[in-house]
Amino acid sequence: MEGLTLLAAIALPIAAGALLPVVRWKGRAARDAYILCLTILTTVLATVAIFGNFPRLSLIQFNDRLSFALKLDGIGRLFAGLIALLWPLTTLYALGYMRGTQKEISFFAFFLMSYGISLGIAMSANLVTLYIFYEMLSLSTLPLVMQKGDSGSIRAGLKYLYYSLGGAAFAFIGLVYLVYFGGTTNFVPGGLFRGVAVEHTAQLRLGYLLCFLGFSVKAAVFPVHGWLPTASVAPTPVTALLHAVAVVKSGVFAILRVTYFSFGALVIRASYAQYIPLALTCFTIVFGCSMALKEKHLKRRLAYSTVSNLSYILFGALLLTGQGLAAGLLHLVFHALMKITLFLIAGVYNDRAGIHEVGELHGIGRDWPVLSAAFALGSLAMTGIPPFIGFISKWALAQAAVLSGGLLPYLGLTALLVSALLTGIYLLVPSTFIFIGRRPGNAPGTKPVETEIRISLAALTALMLAAGFFSRPLVDFITRAASGLV
Fold first, then answer.
1. Rounded to two decimals, what is the model's pTM?
2. Alpha-carbon distance 453 to 469, whole Å?
3. Is residue 187 within 8 Å of 193, Cβ to Cβ?
């Protein structure tokens, strides 16, 4: 019965979100308190699950090979912890940001449900369970992408849906391969085929490649990245979670699972099943940065930056070494902290100052000096300048590539260096614009920034800065998790 804590952490926000439109609220304050309290309670339950040592919880046994089950291991704890840390802060931001907009109740209903579903992905004990939650996440975030209800939002939502359905089909093929050749979809450190004479290696490699391509849709790997910049039309709290935590990191997490815990490095290493994904990630790193450099729209520029940085994580993992996996996991956490901060500040610029293009940022720092300083610090961190967290994870990725050796790892190292230069241009230039020049006389005036937004951004900025100076415990945990010791 102890494992029910895992279930509670997942089920509570899903049920709370479903009930939100049903209850007749006496006022906004009561509704906001309900949303925030249920979010915090979910985080408490998730924290208990993360630091506990709960046994596997089997909920549904479909047949002798397939089951719906929950279990937390090292990388599951890391991903669940990241979700549990950032979701309450984003919810607090959203309570201020969405105030007075249409369809607030439906927004927070799906927002709450997406929290539980994301935790479900982190806590899945096998690929069947992960796949179910993965598809549920597509359905729960689709209304959030289409929240505004205009033609642009609807087009973005449909594009997101079509990409997701295509990716799901390929991922399902990989699941079938595992059931047929492995007899189960349980996550096993080292994969299902470690230490076993593999008679069908060619088929397994094809199955892994198809599975990678399926999950790479949400991970925004070229050429299936197109939905992500388009989805930036969604409200800022949604785009922040899409680009930093929930959707894209779920795609990355699923790839890590099938690579290290399903098919296994033994089957994939030194074959086209490793080389093709590795080459795609190397290309995506540079492609995303190049597109960000030419993009004038601020949120889409940040979106293309996400496209690039997600492939940083996958590049490290696809080196198929312990150092590479640890470096990728470290960037998964640090990128989330940096990018969610930048996106949420960009949302304030968009909706409280009418700034949508990079060229419109001139002089906004005079009105919001602290907020703009936080944006500049986040940009410095993303560029990889020491002592910020971006430097720590990028340095770890570079070290892993050098230790791995070979053409593709060195090609990836070159891509990292090119990306660092381009990131410096496409983020530091707007960060400079913020503090120079003056806003045009016909520019819309700035609106007050709600207290909830200020608290959320202050906490995120503090976390981002503190992680750069006190990263050793996290690095040690990730190293142990990558080695299968936790």
1. 0.95
2. 25
3. no
